[in-house]
Write a structure and sequence with these properties.
61 residues; mainly alpha
Length: 61
């Protein structure tokens, strides 16, 4: 399996986890390095969800 496929799979799996679960994992993580990774994943998923909302036709700016 190439590294791009692994990375894409990781991001796809992160998108399938609820934002609440990602935030809880981030807040409860004791390892500072893992906490940074979880926080980055949370931010990524949040950004993707916000992009989906903004692209809706009925979204008012």
């Amino acid at each position: 399996m190439n590294s791009k496929k692994i990375f894409d799979d990781l991001l796809n799996k992160a998108e399938s986890v609820s934002l609440e679960d990602l935030m809880n994992e981030t807040l409860n993580e004791t390892d500072p390095e893992k906490k940074k990774v979880l926080n980055s994943l949370y931010t990524y998923v949040l950004d993707k969800k916000q992009d989906e909302v903004i692209r809706r036709k009925d979204f008012i700016r």
